[in-house]
Each structure stands twice: as structure tokens, then as C-alpha cells.
Design a protein that fits this description.
The structure is a homodimer.
Chain A lengths: L16 H8 L2 H10 L4 E2 H7 L5 H13 L3 E6 L5 E6 L1 H34 L7
Antiparallel strand pairs in A: 1-3, 2-3
Helix pairs in contact in A: 2-5
Chain A binds a DNA duplex through helix 3 and helix 4.
Chain lengths: 129, 129
DNA sequence: TCCATTTGGTAACTAATGGAAACCAGCTAT
DNA sequence: ATAGCTGGTTTCCATTAGTTACCAAATGGA
């Protein structure tokens, strides 16, 4: 089942890996997957939790993730139509990695901001000197 | 030194983490960091290895990564000016995570493509059925 | 000598994307 | 009746990504 193509190489422009990487290396996808890792979530629930995301981007991100087989969509015929998004087994294999990315950002945010301030002031970072 | 801000939360739109995440969750940044992890590399060396990247995007990505303190730039006054890029200690802490992202894409590319084909044909993925 | 090629970029221009807001349908509560 | 919830789509504009051409300085070959 899980065939590992011998030629998969993200550095080759013709390799489809490039397209996949472009999808998953995405701010909104990382945030969405981070929330879905805890269990099924509804559309507007995601919208409220991911501050600043527009309906368009959320809808677009979820649709892409569904197409890629990372997220599954389930419409429930309740009073107002409820749509529930959950992570698929394939998506779960990616979950830990994107969580690490988000956690890295949260953890090292301060250091990055500091470096940016130094760069903007002197044109030199911490290590280059 | 390495203060971990108690309020760092990528889901808050006002948190700078969002900006940091947007930078590191980037196709080109992932590929650049992947190569720099093996040791210092020159500009055109990167350009040749990362097929399909333009000078502009490479230059822009490297500049951002340098500003963020993840990459250091060293210009050597050789015959034609050689510029060597290497990963910083801070960048090294991110390296493993972005490598995992790239490796995930390479490993699961086949499954993602399969899912895309199914979605495009039936509107349904592997798991939703 | 003169043109091609190397180095590492920048500037101009166009194609694609991101984000704000409006709009949609169906139903409910006031 | 009108404002609100559900989950979206559409439209528009600003920003960004990407392509191409060009730059300076030097070297190697014809």
C-alpha cells in the first residue's frame, strides 16, 4: 500500500512532492491541523478559534486538505446544517510534524523578534558577528 | 535568555507567533533550510540545487531567514565575491522539524496524489466513505 | 581585444494569491 | 419581520510570487 517512490525528491522541480510541500507548508493549514488533532471540529468553531482567518481562506484550506486526504468532511443534517471536520489517518501522520512547527514558532518567537530588531538596527544578527 | 512568553499562542491574531509561523511555513524556506543543514552553501549553489527557484525568491528567502536569525550570511572577498550561507544555532533547532515536513511530503506524496485523484473523480476521499 | 561566463544580487513588470466584505440559502428565536 | 445562527461562495482590491532583464567586477578563451 504505502509505496515509497524511489524518486521522490522535493528539490526536483518536476517532482509532485513540490506541490504537496507547498500545500502543507502553509500557515492556515498548520493551524487547522493543529486544532483537528484534538478531535472533530465544526466550521465556525474553527473560524472563531483561528483568529483572523476569513471564511474564504478557511473554506479554501479545508477543501484543499480534504482533497489531499488529510481531513474528512461530514455534513450532519441538523437544525442548521452542521459540518464536522476531522483528521484522517493520513493527516494524523502529518499532525505531529506541523504541531512541532507551530510549537517552534511559539517557543522561539521571542528570539526571532530579537534577531529581527538587531538586523533592522545594525544589519547584523546574533551569530554573524 | 531564552524566555518563553507565557502568552505565545499562534491562534491569537495579535500574537507575533503568527508572523513567525508564516515565515517558516514556507516552501522555499523549508528547502533552503534543508540544504543548509548539511553545511555552508553558496548562493548559486543553492540556486542550482533548488530547481525552479528564481534568484529573486532565493535572495528574498535568504534575507528573511537572515533577519529572523535562522541563517547567517558571510561575504568572502574572493575573485568573484563569494557569499556563504550557513545555519545558525537557532536555525538548527528548527532544522529537524522542517526536514520532517519535507520528508513527510516525499514519503506520502503518492498517497496524497491518489487521494486527489479520487476527490476529483468522486468528490470523496479514502476515509470519508 | 572582446565576448561569454562566473559571482550575487536588484529593478521592473505581470500573474497569482490573500484578505475584507457582501451575499446566499435555510432555519430559529424574539 | 428582522436579526441571528449554520456553512459557505463571490467580488473586489492589495499584496505577493514569479519571470525576466540588467547590474558591477573579474576571469578565461578565441
Amino acid at each position: 500500500m504505502s509505496f515509497t517512490p524511489p524518486t521522490a525528491n522535493a528539490y526536483a522541480s518536476t517532482c509532485p512532492t513540490r506541490l504537496v510541500l507547498d500545500r502543507i507548508a502553509d500557515k492556515w493549514a498548520v493551524l487547522v491541523l493543529g486544532l483537528l488533532g484534538d478531535g472533530p471540529v465544526r466550521f465556525n468553531q474553527l473560524r472563531r478559534q483561528i483568529e483572523g482567518i476569513s471564511q474564504k481562506m478557511l473554506s479554501q484550506t479545508l477543501k484543499s486538505l480534504e482533497r489531499d486526504g488529510l481531513v474528512s468532511r461530514k455534513a450532519i443534517a441538523t437544525v442548521p446544517v452542521t459540518v464536522e471536520y476531522s483528521i484522517t489517518p493520513l493527516g494524523a501522520t502529518l499532525s505531529a510534524t506541523v504541531d512541532n512547527l507551530r510549537i517552534w514558532a511559539e517557543t522561539h518567537m521571542g528570539q526571532v523578534l530579537l534577531s529581527q530588531r538587531q538586523y533592522d538596527a545594525t544589519g547584523t544578527g546574533t551569530t554573524a558577528m
